[in-house]
Amino acid sequence: MGKQLPPPNEHIDCEMVKMEVNLDDMSGELLGYVMDLLFEHGANDVYYTPIFMKKNRPGTLLQLLCSERKVDEMKSILFRETTTLGIRYYPLSVHRLERIFVTVHTEWGPITVKKGLYGEEVVQWAPEYEDCKQIARTYGIPLKNVYDAVRRAELMKQDLSN
Known about the structure:
2 domains; four-stranded antiparallel β-sheet; 4 helices; Alpha-Beta Plaits; globular; single chain; alpha+beta
């Protein structure tokens, strides 16, 4: 049996790299600044995990994903902007779902919803945060109420299509 390829807009990135560093003595403000820099310079994902280091010191594990061509740029940011003395990195593949964007209408206006397709099946969907945040601020309502309205509108849409 041959290797099954994903649908045309679903794809596998084979030239990705995961980088990670252990950090101590860095404030939340510095970590936020570093995250912003990494994203601005092309990181696909950046995340932090609390850890305990040697001598039971609290620290932070910074992990990021980027394309191979961005590794040198990411290393420069990590060495210049963090307290790390070493970077671990290794290649990996990332399977990305096809993404489509649809508009859901709520009582406060339209909101974009991102859907992830695996083959032809929608397996993930979520309202776009920035759209929801803008509506929550504009109308002075809790953000969770906006998310709930999108869920209700999406469920009604699904019921009507069945």
